[in-house]
């Protein structure tokens, strides 16, 4: 399956729907449990957020990208806007509001694995007219659909305005089959990590176990499996890609980089097999530096890895 480059005058390949957040990173030998205190190191303050990371990865890898969301009128909001500018993501649909920007505290252990606490912004009603304008100018809308009712409207408006919908499903997004079925029915491309898959499914991750998810709505489901690579399944075909060797420093944002890379490649007209290899290569490079975006590669670096 190949998505050809746009020829309908749409400004953006990808519209990333969701609020970015500020990441506060700490490193320790082990991640503390209840009633534990450990010594660590403050790694700094970084721009982050799952949807925003996808936007930055896709933009760095050649897609025309815009963000739709909110930042606070605080120092964090300035950091978030500055990072969008650095990565070439349009923030014309990012609104500044009078409360703190979304934030996450991320703890990284000696192996590079992480745990985090996320503090979102307060809920805000969807500005449907403004979002419709943004969707009308975009080929695809990408979202992390925590709020199902809001996502129903987002997906409907996107489809009504000729944009495809891609989502990322983690375990917290779809903890049961009823919610999963609703999300699948509203989406065109669905990404799942291994935890998101196992929250509702059993058995090995394979063409046989993933295809039933495709039959419930989307045209493609892509499952990432960290060091075991990734699998993409459509109604009539499947592709598997092994992971590339990686020097793990910080796994934060690796999955987001994969998703952004896969969408950038697909929207540029690459085949599914090529997009899968491109995304796995990009993700393997993304873990080599601290921060969700610190190791995000550009297209030339990914192409060099692919040979």
Biggest beta-sheet profile: 9 strands, mixed
Name the overall outline: globular
For the secondary structure, the number of strands is: 13
Q: Give the CA-CA distance, first to last residue.
A: 23 Å
List low-pLDDT spans. 1-6
Q: Percent helix among the residues?
A: 25-40%
Key words describing this protein structure:
nine-stranded mixed β-sheet, 307 residues, alpha/beta, 10 helices, UDP-N-acetylmuramoyl-L-alanine:D-glutamate ligase
Descriptive notes:
The protein has a domain of 209 residues: 3-Layer(aba) Sandwich (UDP-N-acetylmuramoyl-L-alanine:D-glutamate ligase). The relative contact order is 0.16. The chain has 307 residues and is of the alpha/beta class. 35% of the residues lie in helices and 27% in strands.
Concise synopsis of the structure shown:
By secondary structure, the protein is an alpha/beta fold.
Q: Can you lay out the helices and strands and say which pair or pack?
A:
Layout: E1 12-17, E2 21-28, E3 40-48, H1 50-60, E4 65-72, H2 75-87, E5 90-97, E6 102-108, E7 114-119, H3 128-136, E8 138-143, H4 148-160, E9 164-169, H5 177-186, E10 189-193, H6 194-198, H7 207-214, E11 220-224, E12 230-233, E13 238-241, H8 254-267, H9 272-286, H10 299-306
Parallel strand pairs: 1-4, 1-8, 2-6, 4-5, 8-9, 9-10, 10-11
Antiparallel strand pairs: 2-3, 6-7, 11-12, 12-13
Helix pairs in contact: 1-8, 3-4, 4-5, 8-9, 9-10
């Amino acid at each position: 399956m190949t998505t050809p480059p746009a020829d309908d005058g749409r400004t953006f390949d990808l519209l990333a729907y969701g609020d970015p957040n500020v990441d506060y990173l700490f490193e320790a030998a082990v991640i503390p449990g209840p009633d534990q205190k450990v010594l660590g190191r403050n790694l700094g303050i970084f721009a982050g957020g799952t949807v925003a990371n996808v936007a930055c990865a896709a933009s760095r890898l050649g897609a025309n990208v815009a963000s739709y969301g909110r930042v606070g009128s605080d120092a964090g909001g300035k950091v978030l806007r500055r990072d969008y500018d650095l990565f070439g993501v349009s923030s014309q649909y990012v609104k500044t509001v009078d409360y703190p920007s979304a934030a996450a505290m991320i703890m990284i252990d000696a192996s590079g694995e992480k745990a985090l606490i996320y503090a979102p912004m307060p809920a805000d009603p969807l500005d449907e007219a403004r979002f419709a304008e943004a969707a009308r100018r975009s080929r695809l809308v990408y979202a992390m659909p925590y709020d199902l009712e809001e996502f129903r409207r987002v997906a409907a408006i996107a489809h009504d305005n000729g944009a495809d919908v891609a989502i990322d499903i983690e375990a917290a997004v779809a903890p049961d089959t009823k919610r999963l079925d609703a999300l699948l029915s509203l989406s065109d491309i669905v990404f799942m990590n291994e935890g998101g898959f196992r929250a509702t499914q059993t058995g090995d991750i394979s063409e046989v176990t993933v295809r039933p998810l495709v039959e419930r709505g989307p045209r493609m489901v892509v499952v990432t499996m960290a060091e075991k690579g990734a699998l993409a399944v459509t109604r009539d075909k499947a592709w598997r890609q092994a992971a590339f060797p990686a020097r793990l420093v910080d796994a934060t944002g690796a999955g987001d980089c994969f998703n952004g890379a896969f969408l950038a490649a697909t929207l540029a007209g690459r085949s599914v097999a090529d997009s899968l290899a491109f995304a796995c290569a990009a993700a393997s490079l993304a873990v080599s530096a601290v921060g969700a975006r610190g190791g995000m590669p550009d297209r030339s670096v990914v192409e060099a890895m692919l040979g």
